[in-house]
Amino acid sequence: MNLNLIRKDFPQLRQGFIYFDSGSTSLKPAPVINAVKDYYETLSASVGRGLHRPSNRATTAYQEAHDKVRSFFNTKGHVVFTKNCTEAINIVAHGIDWQAGDRIVTTYLEHNSNLLPWLNLRSHGVEVITVKCTPDGTINLKELSDFITEKTKLVAVTHASNVLGSIVPVEEVVDSARKKGAMVLIDGAQAAPHLKVDVQRIGCDFYAASGHKMLGPSGTGILLINQDIFDQLRPMMLGGGSATDVEFNKITFTQGPALFEAGTPNIAGAIGLGAAVDYLTNIGMEEIRKHELQLSGYLIEQLKKVNGITIYGPQDINKRTGVVSFSIKDIPAHRIAIILDEVGNIAIRSGNHCAFLLTHKILKQEGGTARVSFYLYNTKEEIDTLIDTLQEGIAHV
Amino acid sequence: MCNIQYKLTMLCRRGGREFYHVYPDKSIGVLPHNHKDLKVLISHPKYSVISFPDCNVTVFASGRMLIENLPEDSEKRAHAIVREIISVWCQSGNTPTHP
């Protein structure tokens, strides 16, 4: 992996800013930006709706993007493009035929996107069990398994925490759920950009991911649906493209994933996402993982030198993604983030990271944490600058 | 006399506490460190942390401010704090510049 060449692909890096907030959204490489631009300059037409050649070309490119994503995740199931991971999860929350008394099992590790849609179902009589985790982000799989009963319709867990970086052994979660006949949804927003994800090996029913966190354009997300349960899911939204024939008393719905992509989709975004997947595939997810592990290990070692620091997440670096949360003494996380921005031209995230249960109830950090999140374009030198700024700008003041 | 406009937005509310983010339209530069009306907790070349009875405020040389841990529903109080800081800075004979 040639870091210098990679960095040249990311125009935003030329501004001299250090970007450590890829957990929120990633920077975009030139091939992705160009793919979006090319669509608007040469391909602009709706998809699946016109008989003219531009529409045909756009439809082909749009479909190819689906195929690239299917291959990237090694799934034989259906690929639905969404506007983000949140929408992907909500499609499942709204699409399952819930009955009063059904149970959903989830965890304290979850981002609001994989918690609120389930908590909202309590008004329909659905029981939501939230399994605690340890402060380093470990879920007790035995405890989780014990909560999965015959009443459990869905187990919804994250693949990797957006706060702690801890990786959840999702294959084991799927095994536990299968024994009781429950479906499984994996929130892959923080895993798909950083790990080699093999959906067939995981064996889940739904895998949701954010396109924009994996180098794709804003407004792109992914929902992978196991074809065995595809017919059990009802579309959240209906409109153009949802039906092949409509009469007042009979609607013939579209077959396949297009049923979940009603209306004119984000065509440029989808094509850009296809380019992002190509980019990641060309570099290799194993290489990206190796690079991020090096960065995480180096950052944690360096952070330990900062006076008054508390580092959150697994001690074992191999159980982490490139996310490292920390706090310094009693300094509010937002102050740390703005000082890094103003003093060091460094972008990090601060606060609760939309994971209130985790930061409040498990980490006991009402004010949240400061979070560094890496991607393939970050360097050790950038970490050195971060540490210098923390030392000189915050810890020793 | 200073004529500094600013945009104040609530950053977050949690646990009964509010954080506000302030962007002035002009840079107010570095605050005086030993002003009689301000209690400066931290003084750094690029920012100061000022203590008020009900909160701390981080003020950057760019003029950007972070008001930390005000009680709930304190937007009016946040505006008053910002005006006080700007007033102190202006009384010190400073002239704002565009950031």
Overall description:
The complex is a heterodimer of chains A (397) and B (99). Chain A is an alpha/beta fold. In chain A, 37% of the residues lie in helices and 16% in strands. A seven-stranded mixed β-sheet of chain A has the order 2-8-7-6-5-3-4, with helices on both faces. In chain A, α10 packs parallel to α13 (380-395) and α11 crosses α13 (380-395). Chain A is globular. With 99 residues, chain B is an alpha+beta fold. Helices cover 17% and strands 42% of the residues of chain B. The longest helix of chain B is centred in the C-terminal third of the chain and has 17 residues, at 75-91. Chain B is globular. The model of chain B has no long low-confidence stretch (mean pLDDT 84). The chains are: A alpha/beta (397), B alpha+beta (99). The A-B interface holds A 332, 334-335, 338-339, 342-343, 351-352, 356, 360, 366-368, 393, 397 and B 11-12, 14-15, 17, 19, 42-44, 46-47, 49, 58, 60-62, 64, 66, 68-69.
Give a quick set of tags describing it:
heterodimer, A: 397 residues, alpha/beta, seven-stranded mixed sheet, four-stranded antiparallel sheet, 15 strands, B: 99 residues, alpha+beta, globular
How are the SSEs ordered, and which strands pair?
The complex is a heterodimer of chains A (397) and B (99).
Chain A: H1 3-8, E1 18-19, H2 30-43, H3 53-72, E2 78-82, H4 85-95, E3 103-107, H5 116-119, E4 127-131, H6 141-147, E5 152-158, H7 170-179, E6 183-187, H8 199-202, E7 206-210, E8 221-225, E9 243-246, E10 251-253, H9 267-283, H10 285-303, E11 309-311, E12 323-328, H11 333-344, E13 346-347, E14 349-351, H12 356-362, E15 369-373, H13 380-395
Parallel strand pairs in A: 1-13, 3-4, 3-5, 5-6, 6-7
Antiparallel strand pairs in A: 2-8, 7-8, 9-10, 11-12, 12-15, 14-15
Helix pairs in contact in A: 2-9, 3-9, 10-13, 11-13
Chain B: E1 6-14, E2 17-24, E3 39-44, E4 47-52, E5 55-60, E6 65-71, H1 75-91
Antiparallel strand pairs in B: 1-2, 2-6, 3-4, 4-5, 5-6
